[in-house]
Amino acid sequence: MMPPGLVSNLQEVLLSRKGESNSNANAEQEQSTETLEPVEFDESKPIVLVTNSDGVDSPGLTHLVQALVQQGLYNVHVCVPQSDKSASGHSVTLRETVEAASAKVSGATAFEISGTPVDCVSLALSGALFSWSKPTLVVSGINRGSNCGHHMLYSGVVAGAREALLWGVPALSISLNWKKDESQEDDFKDAVSVCLPLVNAAIKDVEKGTFPKSCFLNIEIPTSPLSNKGFKVTKQSMRKSTLNWLAVSSSRYPPGHFMANQGGLGLQFAQLGRDASAAGAARRLATQKKNLEIIESTGAAGKSDPNRVKKYFRLEFLDKEQEEGDEDLDYRALENGYVAVIPQFLSPLIESDIQMACSDWVSTVLPDGQ
Known about the structure:
Blueprint: H1 4-35, E1 47-51, H2 59-71, E2 75-81, E3 100-105, E4 108-113, H3 117-125, E5 137-144, H4 151-154, H5 156-166, E6 171-176, H6 186-208, E7 215-221, E8 231-233, E9 241-248, E10 268-269, H7 278-286, H8 288-291, E11 294-295, E12 312-319, H9 330-335, E13 339-345, H10 351-365
Parallel strand pairs: 1-2, 1-5, 2-4, 5-6, 6-7, 8-13
Antiparallel strand pairs: 3-4, 7-13, 9-12, 10-11
Helix pairs in contact: 1-7, 2-6, 3-5
GO molecular function, one term: nucleotidase activity
Protein name: Survival protein SurE-like phosphatase/nucleotidase domain-containing protein
Pfam families: SurE (PF01975)
């Protein structure tokens, strides 16, 4: 139990700072709105919706949108999560209000969503956010890291394209096989130059009605994009990673981590340590968007029993050694330097037909790519 005086003082500081923080946030939002230039909408041009799983500042998204805008062929719209939602899978936000905030992306109409990649796509296609509800194509990416095998089930960027397919909209998800200490930020620009012809061909053939139906295409770009050996339509492998849960020392989360619901305070400070002062708490609150999450306390939830056992864990993916497999599997093609194109479908009953249709389409639009 903390002294009542300290709780009272802390409460006053937090409430006053919360008001200042809200005022500053409103001012920033107004200033941001003033600097956003309206993007002209040309009804004669196809609509392309770009999304991803890691936000508006992702270099993969930046270079992709820039390339699409520079061509001057499309109405480019962007709808992405406000924060990194990698490995969020096909999750959606329920029983919570989702915020859509305008974002500045040169040449495109853009929004950041306080939700998952699937939220972004479904909201964009619903007709509630944009004036249209069905773009010509949805492009999800470019992701930092490959998504082969079972990784597609965890991937937020792949889920964005899958959600588009559920809405009946053709889609591509694109990932770069990023490798630590080897890859560079410029590789995303090279990745765009590699996949852009396929994106353009997809848009053109969607309009013509010749793009493969009942599927979306997951495109995996090798680590050195410009050194790729061509495009190769592959099957999804069974490649998977081990989910490794690491126990985290409770010393990282001291008793002061949770503040009981005293005096109506009812707050939990996710990064407030045992020795934090009122001034320190206020400074953290001023930067809560990036550094602090404020939710109801365990006391407010009626679970303040000090005898409860609490443990802390962190999850990491550990890649397993893969046996030599079929050269037509996604990860094998990617490791051998090919741009792997993996058709993804909702029904396994049409797998062989879709595989053949996609192979025929890629070989037609990119005759030198196979």
